[in-house]
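Work Package 3 (structural annotation) set out to generate three-dimensional models for the target panel prioritized at the project kickoff. During this period the team completed the workflow that converts sequence records into discrete structure tokens, so that structures can be stored uniformly alongside our sequence database. As a representative example, we reproduce one entry of 584 residues exactly as it appears in the project archive.
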Amino acid sequence: MGVAGHNDPLLGETTCGSLLQQLQLIWDEVGESDDDRDTMLLQLEQECLDVYRRKVDQASSSRTCLLQQLANSKSELARLLSALGELSVSGIPDETTGTIKEQLAAISPSLEQLCRKKESRVKEFADVQLQIQTLRGEIAGNLQVGDHLDTPHVNEDDLSVKKLNEFLSELQALQKEKSNRLHKILEFVSSVHDLCSVLGMDFLITVTEVHPSLDDSIGVQSKSISDETLSKLSKMLIGLQEEKAKRFAQIQALASQLSDLWNLMDAPVEEQQPFHHVACNMSLTMDEVTVPGALALDVVEQAEREVERLDQLKASRMKDIAFKKQTELEDIYARAHIAIDSSAARDRIMSIIDSNSFEPSELLADMESQILKAKEEALSRKDILERVDRWMSACEEESWLEDYSRDDNRYSATRGAHLNLKRAEKARVLVNKIPAIVDTLVAKTRAWEQEQGMPFIYDGVLLLAMLDEYKILRQEKEEEKRRMRDHKKMNDQLAAEQEKLFGSKPSPARPQSSRKVAGARVNGGAANGTPVRRLSALQSGGRTASRDGRRDTGRPAAPVNYVAIAKDDAASQVSSNHTGPSTP
């Protein structure tokens, strides 16, 4: 049996053989028997075997441990790769080569790297999941802003990038949802602030009733974004908008009443000024009312008290107000040339006011109805009245033109003569249009009467009767002009015959007779002419009674040149012209 010895530099070289030789020498010296020597050698050999066996067992156990450690490392490596979602790690050979320790040495760095990566990934997952739970709690309203949650449990079996990206996508969606909710919250809060300002309400008290975090002093990111907060804010906003609409309708109605009462009673500007902020709401829409306190309760109450005061004042001044309305009604009829009985209307108003059943609102409503009806009637007559004015203006120009034509000095170089000449030219053009104007006016009047089912009365006289009378008088005037031209022609012939018989010296009576003929062409005509009597009757009946009962004579009801020269006066002129010359 040979056993490797142990080399010791101090003791020299010692081997199993040298030791056995020493044991043989000792046995020889002692005198041990061969049997004893064999027994001791067998014992020694058995002890060596036991030592070797123990060493082998220890080596085998160590190898088993290393193999288990290698298997565990490989399993952990595979588990980490699976959990992290990675296929492989750089540095690990694809095939198993080398000793066990070499394999362990090759796996250990990658395993340590994956462990560090796992710890980092677990922290990332925990942070993301914590943010997700926080946002979910804030949205659901289960978590107050600023509260902290415990670190959530992370499933270490799935730490892949794909799973992390899923959590990150969910986190981004929740963050976007929070941003949208914050935007809505801020919009609602801003709208509530504006409405509270207009309605004169305390914004801080109103908005904190929904949630304390909606106070302006709290940061934006700390405000509640729960469904409950959004729902309460939305309901509050709708309620405030309804309240604004209600108060706006009240303030507009009060402003309209104030305006009507001020106009009715001629209230001075100083009295209206304190309620100017109320009256200005009449011309605004509800969205345009943004002035702070414009719809406050005290403003509405002040306006209500002012309307109540003016209503009481209106009842005491009803007589003046009613007569003012009557005056407005009479002015409308006067401008429309409609004759009414003003005295009877005013007496009726006085009897209503003095009666026991007098109701101011009913009287004013009735008078407003009459005014509205009068305006509608005046509007329907407007076109015809404008044509009547044009007709009368043309007749006035015709009268002026006749006077201008009788003026022997119209062509003299006096101041303003050129202006009269221009006017005469325009007047001739206008006078030539009179027949067409009258015909159009007749057609318009008849169409109006057919449509309205009533005659057209102008200052108490039938307009068609006026026009027919005018046509007759104008025809008579034209006939009289023609007769005058014939008379003049006869006079000229007679004068020529007398000139041949008696010479060119005129008789003393001729100039006087000639002046008499020229002076007879006046627009008014003779005093005993039938057309004059018709015109006077037409004009006397065509005046509108003024508000104090007197006739309005400021404007003629018919053209002033209605009447031609009377027939009797024309006959007298002809007889005077046919008188023979005086004998010398």
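The chain has 18 helices and four strands.
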